[in-house]
């Protein structure tokens, strides 16, 4: 006799309970849907907080860009008075915890979605804790699980340590070492700042960093989002919003300039046993290569749905480009133009309205 598999049937499955997933859950509740019945929200992480629970300890509320409020409950309401030096990995998970409780959003965790496929006109969502079946899908799985490290010849030969931003905890472990830091984004700069205080550093990046002098107003933010939105509407891989906003010149960056550690070199061409080598033959020794080269969208579980175009992107449509053109029953938030805390919020609202219309629920 075959084994019977129990399947939890619901109307909508939300995958991921970070800023994007919680925002979607809030609007689903507002439309009268009951969590745990009409929709379920699944998250593989052990605690509330999305990827924020994994951020390195020195990332505090004074060093993050800005964590935008979730709908209906300001972040500030959950903070102590003097909070600037509070770890982001503590404050944001606390906020999300309060948020889930305030709005009765019961997240099923830890539940890791391994595969989503089409079965009899519905989505079959396979997890490490059972199976779900739904008519609509909101994917909000972020990027943290998918660190990106570019390939360079010789990487396997290197006898030192290679790490990614995702692995970084504290600079102390690099004390007295020679560290090559790769990347031109905010994380690269922040980790260069910390590591250069205790170790010898060489900073390299493929493109020169794009420093932005002067204030970054709302219209500049909108322009940056529009560039990424245009890309995903054309089915191109999104690129990060931050890559088009540039790096704000903060007092910390000016202090790094004054310390003489902000000397960027072009990318090396190969990795050797003992360090890195440039195309002109120049070489340096290194104990560590720290790849601050970003993340890609965590979408492997959606592979059977064959959403990607040849170039690797997914054609997105809908008001805020959250709807998958190939299958309007799928929305992706925190992807492309909504990959920021403010973008994820707005996208949650648009995705819920459009998905419910597609499913004939509104
Ligand atoms: C170092 C760093 C600093 C940043 N600082 C800022 C900032 O200051 N301001 C800002 O606006 N943005 C910042 N960002 C971008 C930021 O991550 C996003 O804005 C936002 O927090 C992402 O929310 P999200 O809900 O899309 O993803 P996440 O917070 O990553 O949440 C995704 C959730 O999905 C879950 N998940 C993933 N895969 C699965 C699966 N297969 N099954 C079940 N669950 C799954 C994860 O457990 C996670 O809880 C930063 C990013 C990084 C890397």
Automatic annotation (TrEMBL):
The keyword Oxidoreductase applies. It comes from the Bacteria. The keyword Oxidoreductase applies. Keywords: Oxidoreductase. InterPro entries: Auxin_biosynth/cation_transpt, FAD/NAD-bd_sf. This is NAD(P)-binding domain-containing protein.
């Amino acid at each position: 006799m075959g084994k019977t598999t129990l399947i939890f049937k619901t109307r909508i499955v939300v995958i991921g309970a970070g800023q994007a997933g919680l925002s979607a859950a809030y609007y689903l509740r507002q439309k009268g849907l009951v969590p745990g019945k009409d929709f379920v929200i699944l998250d593989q992480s052990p605690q509330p907080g999305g990827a924020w629970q994994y951020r390195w300890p020195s990332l505090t509320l004074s060093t993050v860009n800005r964590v935008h409020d979730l709908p209906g409950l300001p972040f500030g309401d959950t903070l102590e008075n003097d909070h600037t030096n509070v770890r982001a990995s503590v404050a944001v998970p606390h906020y999300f915890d309060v948020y889930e409780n305030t709005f009765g959003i019961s997240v099923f965790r830890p539940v890791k979605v391994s595969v989503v496929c089409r079965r009899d006109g519905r989505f079959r969502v396979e997890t490490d804790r059972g199976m779900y079946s739904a008519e609509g899908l909101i994917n909000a799985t972020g990027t943290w699980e998918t660190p990106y490290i570019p390939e360079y010849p010789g990487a396997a030969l290197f006898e030192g340590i290679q790490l990614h931003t995702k692995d970084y905890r504290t600079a102390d472990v690099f004390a007295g070492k020679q560290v090559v830091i790769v990347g031109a984004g905010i994380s690269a700069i922040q980790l260069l700042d910390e590591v250069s205080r205790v170790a010898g550093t060489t900073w390299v990046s493929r493109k020169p960093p794009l420093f932005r002098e002067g204030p970054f107003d709302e219209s500049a933010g909108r322009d940056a989002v529009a560039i990424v939105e245009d890309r995903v509407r054309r089915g191109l891989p999104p690129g990060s919003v931050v890559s088009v906003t540039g790096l704000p010149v903060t007092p910390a960056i000016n202090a790094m300039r004054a310390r003489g550690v902000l000397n960027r070199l072009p990318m090396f061409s190969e990795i050797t046993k003992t360090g890195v080598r440039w195309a002109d033959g120049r070489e340096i020794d290194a104990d560590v290569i720290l790849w601050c080269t970003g993340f890609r969208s965590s979408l492997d579980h959606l592979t059977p749905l064959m959403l990607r175009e040849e170039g690797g992107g997914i054609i997105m449509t809908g008001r805020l480009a959250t709807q998958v053109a190939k299958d309007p029953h799928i929305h992706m938030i925190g992807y492309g133009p909504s990959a920021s805390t403010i973008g994820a919020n707005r996208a949650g609202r648009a995705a819920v309205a459009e998905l419910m219309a597609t499913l004939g629920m509104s």
